[in-house]
Amino acid sequence: MIRVSEISKFFGGKRALGPVSFEIATGETVGFLGLNGAGKTTLLRILACDLRPSAGSFAVDGIDGVATPHHIRSLVGFLPETPPIYSEMTVGEYLRFAGQLRGLTGSDLERRLPQVEEITNVRTAHHELLRHLSHGYRQRVGLAQAIIHEPQLLILDEPTTGLDPAQIVEMRTMIQGLKEKHTVLISSHILPEIHQTCDRLLVLRDGELVATGTEQDLSTQLESCRIAVSVALVGEHSGTGGVEAVVSAVTGVHAVAPTERDDGVIDLMIETGSDIRADLSRALVQAGYGVIRIDRADMELEEVFLQIVHGEENGDS
After folding, report:
1. Per-residue pLDDT of the chain (317 residues; tens, 9 = 90+)
2. How far apart are CA 244 and CA 250, in angstroms?
3. What domains, with CATH codes, occur in the chain?
4. In contact, 86 and 94? CB cutoff 8 Å
């Protein structure tokens, strides 16, 4: 669906992006993560043909986005961080105008208008002036204009910015519904939204693509693994020191954090560089401990994200 090859963007002498290269398959929902200034919005604007790259190339559905941007725009629906609305229009007038800009006419336009109002839950505001709408409603109208022409590719830049918790849930539900008919690209600072919405993640740092994959993939790339172990403390094996010593002696264990419970069980969170559950289980059983549980406990997305975007400076210091 999307192929990006060595895309870069400079504003004067300042590099804002690149070079970056990646591919996105038809039907994927991909999240773009990065701190402020990482290049997310610049990249999405380039893919929406709202901004021309300084170098490199990209194609959507095999069509060259640099050579034929107008054609690409017909395939793309774009919701920038600030919805492109005209406050003096009503919701219905604006969506009709947006549809006409996208080439919809006659029966096609009349069919599509109520559909997008229903999808984005703005039907009841059809006759309302846009300037009278809340921020949440404006975001919905912005989403409606992005999908009115039924684009193959939907690009959403921070779609939940400024929304309250209830509105965030509603926007998430709408986006999840759109995944069935569109390839979707989303940038967001709200990590749970990315976690619950996207199939794959692309992480940008200082204009460069530093990681890509699922949450599990990214955690693996960090060469970090957490293993949660629960051990019964009985008889001669009733202290935490002994089990800590057994676990710490296993090759590959970096750190051990024990927590003793009231029911005679100790929980251990073990930091390792790989999945060494078999070795841990063997060592504990041979030492006479009763292993109740031993599972991987992968890092939360927030931890993975922060380690990636700060990884270079942490590694150098």
Report:
1. 899 999 999 999 999 998 999 999 999 999 998 888 889 999 999 999 999 999 999 999 999 999 999 999 999 999 999 999 999 999 999 999 999 999 999 999 999 999 999 999 999 999 999 999 999 999 999 999 999 999 999 999 999 888 888 888 888 889 989 988 999 999 976 676 777 788 898 989 899 998 888 876 776 665 567 899 999 876 655 566 788 899 999 998 988 988 888 778 899 989 887 789 999 999 999 988 889 999 887 656 666 666 666 664 444 43
2. 10
3. 2-220 (3.40.50.300), 225-298 (3.30.70.260)
4. yes
